[in-house]
Write a structure and sequence with these properties.
- A four-stranded antiparallel beta sheet has the order 3-1-2-8.
- It has 245 residues and is of the alpha+beta class.
- Helix 2 packs antiparallel against helix 3, helix 5 (107-120) runs antiparallel to helix 8 (215-230) and helix 6 (152-162) packs across helix 7 (183-191).
- The protein is built from eight helices and eight strands.
Length: 245
């Protein structure tokens, strides 16, 4: 799940059990397979789609041998299983904007499951484009403060010189924002310094934020997100939810 609360999401990700991590690896493996087929082969130096997915895989602690197996499997597949990208948009409780990206071999099943998740979470699935205008597609790299001894200004200059368009500093760490086209280049420049990045992926960054205060709506929100995260067809969930202070 990707939203604006970057460091909270990182803690959530790190705390996942082995079963949840296995599900994440399976989903990323599916993304790798699609990237190999759609992006032009298994060489990440040529296939930018694959290169970006590998960055995401690494930030989710997916082992290199697992990544390579997924690539080899994709190269060897005969095309008998074909996945299509379908994006769903809608509103969670209290008008929270939600985008759900899926890869599916059965659009009827996926649509029914996503619609049910919205409904059970006190939300509504909308039409294409109903909330997408509220987000910007960006590369996002998150670095926890404890992960680097580099001076903040030095790190910012490294990122900007590599092509980043924004650098945010918070108590818990730093966020580097890039155009999707240069995301993997900026990642490579930071990786070359030995800094371990807590999160790195192409994401949808919300322009505005929304809160949920009613207890029933909070329960609905948790239920909706849980159902979507558990769905094998759901690859990414973006939203503009912010916890109320």
């Amino acid at each position: 799940m990707s939203g604006h609360s970057k460091f909270a999401n990182i803690k959530h990700k790190k705390g996942k059990n082995d079963a949840a991590k296995g599900k994440i690896f399976t989903k990323i493996g599916r993304e790798i397979a699609v990237a190999v087929k759609e992006g032009g082969g298994s060489d990440p130096t040529i296939n930018r789609k694959l290169r970006d997915v590998i960055v995401k895989a690494k930030s989710n602690n997916m082992p290199n041998d697992t990544i390579q197996r997924s690539i080899k499997k994709a190269v060897g597949e005969d095309g008998s299983v074909s996945y299509e990208h379908i994006t769903y948009e809608g509103y969670g409780p209290n008008g929270v904007a939600v985008i759900v990206e899926t890869l599916t071999d059965n659009r009827n099943r996926t649509a029914a499951n996503v619609r049910a998740a919205f409904s059970k979470g006190n939300g509504n699935m909308g039409t294409s484009g109903c909330v997408a205008f509220m987000f910007d597609k960006k590369g996002q790299i998150v670095i926890e403060r404890e992960a680097t001894d580099m001076d903040e200004d030095e790190l910012m200059m490294l990122a900007i010189e590599a092509g980043a368009e924004d650098f945010e500093s918070e108590d818990e760490g730093f966020t580097v924002i890039t155009d999707p086209e240069v995301f993997s280049d900026v990642y490579a420049a930071i990786e070359a310094t030995g800094i371990e990045m807590a999160q790195a992926e192409i994401t949808m960054v919300p322009q505005t934020l929304a809160t949920i205060t009613a207890e029933s709506d909070l329960k609905g929100w948790d239920k909706m997100i849980g159902l979507l995260e558990d769905d094998d067809d759901v690859q990414n969930i973006y939203h503009n939810y912010e916890e109320a202070e």
